[in-house]
Design a protein that fits this description.
Largest sheet: none
CATH topology of the largest domain: Growth Hormone, Chain: A
CATH superfamily of the largest domain: MFS general substrate transporter like domains
Helix content: over 70%
Number of strands: 0
CATH architecture of the largest domain: Up-down Bundle
Strand content: under 5%
Number of domains: 2
Oligomer: single chain
Structural class: mainly alpha
Mean pLDDT: 88
Number of helices: 13
Low-confidence stretches: 202-211
Length: about 400
């Protein structure tokens, strides 16, 4: 069982999970629904081309800004001022989007919004590493499963017919994000955890305590690549899920996919919390990651050979649950393996590349495989990537065991 030690308050953990979900609300409804609708209104038949360039430019700016503001929050030894400034700037630029009437002004607003958004997100992510001890990081990861669920729910909320027009929806998103982020800033009051801020790496030849074995460069690299591989699979499914289902049954509607997606996200939350708590109590931080990556591979294999819509749906549900649990718990355990608290924000920014790089890789994989081998060929490849991720994680030693 886990060693006893200082514990962070439940109040902070819950309010932090709410703020992290606010980060998802800040971009999920905008990037998945509101921005495509606005691009179509402005570009007409050129909407797909516009959206591709906007997505690429936004992802590039997000990657750079996340690393930069993570590093700046390290250097300033303060997270919350950056979080607040980013919240204000991202909200301002979001509600200014309707002022863009051409491609140039729209991409400028999108990139400025990404700067503000990542000014908030990067220090917010690092703040958890400053405040949550290792024996609660599994629980933290489980609570972070609320983020994708509430992100998707917010998209459904702001697009309820008759509730708000296109411009007011952006204001609604900004208000929702503000209401979810501010409580932890003003009422979180985390207990100090000075042991999490020590930046004294072991000297060469010195005995390494078991928990520190997870902080080696090798472990960090395996965690980074494993997340990247699973994220590539997740990004491919996110973008092409509807097309694949319709290739099996042409009667499938987008509302059907939305319901399946929602069920997966909702069911994943309690599962992630239970599994995260188990990993804390039994000091097995990496095992659930290896197993969930393996189950994601099984789900992809089932999708590759699915003979009917029922089997296809079952395969996707297994993949979706496993991938959601993996990504949530991985986020919490990443904070455990980063070796230098003084560079925590910067290093999390480098881990954030695993969220943006797949959007650059996934289209090329799809174009190379689907026209020749169909979606089945793509899923076989993605299953192979998930297996590699599982093996990478399974090779990481358990804390308290010999390397």
């Amino acid at each position: 069982m886990a060693d006893t030690g200082p514990r962070q308050s439940t109040r902070f953990l819950l309010l932090y999970a709410l703020a992290a979900a606010g980060g998802a609300v800040a971009y999920v409804p905008f990037l998945t629904v509101l921005l495509p609708v606005r691009v179509t209104a402005l570009a007409g038949e050129a909407d797909v081309t516009w959206l591709a360039y906007l997505t690429l430019g936004g992802a590039t700016m997000a990657s750079l800004a996340n690393v930069a503001f993570g590093w700046l929050s390290d250097r300033s030894h303060s997270r919350l001022p950056w979080v607040l400034a980013g919240l204000v700037l991202s909200s301002i630029f979001l509600v200014m989007i309707p002022q863009a009437q051409d491609f140039t002004s729209l991409i400028v607003f999108i990139m400025a919004w990404q700067v503000g958004l990542n000014m908030m997100l990067a220090p917010l992510a690092a703040w958890a590493g400053d405040c949550v001890p290792d024996h609660q990081k599994g629980l933290l990861g489980g609570l972070l499963a609320f983020a994708p669920a509430l992100g998707a729910a917010s998209g459904a909320l702001v697009t309820i017919p008759g509730l708000a027009d296109a411009d007011s929806r952006l204001v609604m998103v900004a208000l929702l994000v503000t209401a979810m982020v501010l409580p932890v800033v003003f009422f979180g009051r985390p207990a100090p955890m000075p042991q999490l801020m020590k930046d004294d790496p072991p000297q060469p030849g010195a005995r390494v305590d078991p928990p520190e074995r997870l902080k080696s460069r090798s472990v960090v690299s395996r965690m980074w690549f494993a997340r990247l591989l699973v994220q590539i699979a997740e990004a491919a499914l996110f973008a092409y899920l509807l097309f694949w289902f319709r290739s099996i049954d042409s009667s499938v509607r987008d509302s059907d996919i939305a319901r399946i997606f929602a069920v997966v996200l909702v069911v994943a939350v309690p599962l992630a919390i239970v599994i995260g708590r188990w990993s804390d109590r039994h000091v097995r931080p990496i095992l659930p990651l290896a197993i969930s990556a393996g189950l994601a591979a099984v789900g992809l294999l089932a999708m590759a050979i699915a003979p009917s819509l029922v089997y296809a749906t079952a395969g996707y549900v297994l993949f979706g649950l496993a991938a959601t649990i993996f990504l949530s718990l991985h986020t919490g355990q990443t904070l455990r393996v980063l070796p230098r608290p003084s560079h925590r924000g910067r290093d999390l920014g480098l881990f954030n590349l695993t969220n943006t790089v797949p959007s650059l890789i996934m289209p090329w994989l799809t174009l190379a495989l689907v026209p020749v081998f169909g979606f089945s060929g793509l899923f076989w490849l993605l299953a192979g990537l998930a297996v590699v991720a599982s093996l990478l994680l399974a090779s990481i030693p358990r804390p308290g065991t010999a390397q």
